[in-house]
Amino acid sequence: MPNKQSRFLIDTYFAAFNAGDTKKMESLVAEDLIHDVNQGGRRLGKDAFWSFNVHMTRCYKERLTDIVLFVNEEGTRAAAEFIVHGTYIATDEGLPEADGQTYALPAGSFFEIRDGQIARITTYYNLQDWIAQVGGEVKEAS
After folding, report:
1. Model-level pTM?
2. Is residue 24 within 8 Å of 12, Cβ to Cβ?
3. The SnoaL-like domain covers which part of the protein (predicted)?
């Protein structure tokens, strides 16, 4: 897949994210998607991605800004850096209590692209920064 088509694919994914259109996001990923979530386990397959989106929609309302996207020449890999602006709307298990707290958090995602679809999404952000922003306790790394 050429670079330009891959760039359009990832731009479409981020536009769907910002629109809260999880169905569109899911249409852009491969059936055997590998989804690596920050501080979490690996989720395999489109169904696991759907479950993750249901959970995230219940707990968070987020919008990405300042997206900088890099795509390799072959169009098989992409990386994006962005700012997550969010509201914590329902308590996520194991995390501080939600009370509508807002946050702005630098983050990044890496993508593998295969046959015109997203085959892998790996996302990173600083969880301790997020916890501090929502008024939780910051735990030092051991």
Report:
1. 0.91
2. yes
3. 11-121
| Residue 30, token pair as written in the block | 């491969």
User: What beta strand segments (E) does 20-131 contain?
Assistant: 29-36, 42-44, 60-71, 77-88, 101-114, 117-125
What residues contact 37, with CB distance under 8 A and at least 6 apart? Answer: 43, 52, 123
Average pLDDT over residues 23-47: 93
Question: Is the Cβ–Cβ distance between 84 and 103 less than 8 Å?
Answer: yes
Tokens read off for 32 = 């055997």
Ranking 35-39, 83-87, 117-121 by mean pLDDT, the lowest is 35-39
Q: Order the strands of the 77-88 sheet from edge to edge.
A: 42-44, 29-36, 117-125, 101-114, 77-88, 60-71
- Amino acid (1-letter code) at residue 73: E
Ordered by where they begin, the domains of the chain are 3-133 (3.10.450.50)
Name, in order, each residue with C-beta under 8 angstroms of 13's C-beta and a sequence gap of 6 or more: 25, 28, 118
In this prediction, residue 138 has a pLDDT band, given cuts at 50, 70 and 90, of low
